[in-house]
Amino acid sequence: VSTRDLAAAIMQTDDPPSRTSYTVWLTHDVDRLRGYQHPFAPIKSAGADILLRRNLGSAATTLRKAFLSGEPWRSARYIMDLSEDRGLTSRFYFMGRSDHPKDSPYAIRYPKAVRRLGDEISARGHVLGFHPGYDTRQDASEWQRQKTSAEEILGRELKEGRQHRLLFDADGTW
């Protein structure tokens, strides 16, 4: 039995009116700001391409993708363009400062770039939110510390977001 069948029986009609409306919310976790997590990682990989594999082309591709990709602007603008073309608002969830190895260090390393990106996203009418780090699911003080740092970097209060890596623990995350 569907909910529609139930409504029809309760209302004693074959065609009960729908009182449900739906809204599409496009959400995007900003897990990585650049084409790399740590700036020396692509250099190390390119060095291995040259020294171990003797593959200059692969080394050049690695360095180009890491440092000349136009990120984060290219991806963020592409997402915003797609959203705007469809009359939708995107939500971009940013991490705060964290040095946990499973979190991206972009808020520590590139706060000015994060701020510029956030300003552009906001200026285009999209929403900024908070994306808590790995160790926040059962640590309210760490969650608050990271949120405060994200708000300081972005220069505004963040009123929504989503837990990092879907790490939600019903006993402690609330």
What's the SSE blueprint?
Blueprint: H1 3-11, E1 26-30, H2 40-51, H3 56-67, H4 73-85, E2 90-94, H5 106-109, H6 111-123, E3 127-130, H7 140-154
Parallel strand pairs: 1-2, 2-3
Your description of this structure?
With 174 residues, the protein is mainly alpha-helical. 45% of the residues lie in helices and 8% in strands. The protein contains seven helices and three strands; from the N terminus they run αβαααβααβα. It has helices spanning 3-11, 40-51, 56-67, 73-85, 106-109, 111-123, 140-154, and strands spanning 26-30, 90-94, 127-130. It has a three-stranded parallel β-sheet with strand order 1-2-3. α2 (40-51) packs antiparallel against α3. The longest helix is centred in the C-terminal third of the chain and has 15 residues, at 140-154.
For this entry, give a set of tags:
174 residues; mainly alpha; 3-stranded parallel sheet; 7 helices; elongated
